[in-house]
Amino acid sequence: NAGVTQTPKFRVLKTGQSMTLLCAQDMNHEYMYWYRQDPGMGLRLIHYSVGEGTTAKGEVPDGYNVSRLKKQNFLLGLESAAPSQTSVYFCASSKLNEQFFGPGTRLTVL
Amino acid sequence: DQQVKQNSPSLSVQEGRISILNCDYTNSMFDYFLWYKKYPAEGPTFLISISSIKDKNEDGRFTVFLNKSAKHLSLHIVPSQPGDSAVYFCAASRPYSGGGADGLTFGKGTHLIIQP
Known about the structure:
The structure holds two protein chains of two kinds.
Chain A: E1 4-7, E2 10-13, E3 19-25, E4 31-37, E5 43-49, E6 56-57, E7 65-67, E8 73-78, E9 87-94, E10 99-101, E11 105-109
Parallel strand pairs in A: 2-11
Antiparallel strand pairs in A: 1-3, 3-8, 4-5, 4-9, 5-6, 7-8, 9-10, 9-11
Chain B: E1 4-5, E2 10-14, E3 19-25, E4 32-38, E5 45-51, E6 56-59, E7 62-67, E8 72-77, E9 86-93, E10 105-106, E11 110-115
Parallel strand pairs in B: 2-11
Antiparallel strand pairs in B: 1-3, 3-8, 4-5, 4-9, 6-7, 7-8, 9-10, 9-11
């Protein structure tokens, strides 16, 4: 039982490049989330999903897109990366209130 | 506007003593509160939670107190141990709407340092 896993762990992008972050969970959770954490800030919700095939915007959705084609996977895409998207990205999943987090992806945009 | 506030960025406590971490919230719609613990280079891990219908929840060395009228909650760790040194995040959620869960609202975190 791996819980929540994230791929990749680290990535460096140049401004304008695109990439996809993958989140996978093996707990059969309906709900999945993408957060970002910046220095001195708490985690801020980017997008979330309440089930396969559904997505919704969170607090800071601009510049990101998501897809939930399979229940166990939640993808976060950056179409044209900007330096302001340098951050640590955390994926989480939940059945109810308690969310389980992945180890994070550290993304640097130059 | 920050809806969940942790006003102490850091807290230093001696090993064996009590650690008290505080959290305030402004949104009266929040009905469930959680504490997460985070070590460097790891994801947050769930510690303890409390529903708004309760004023206290205990789990081993960890106790969370909720004062709804003051919109304040606190996490007590007794006794504090070196392994408790981490960043602690307070988080809150609203009641589900339409059967969905729209994520947690986090505070900025408090860095707890346990001194030997």
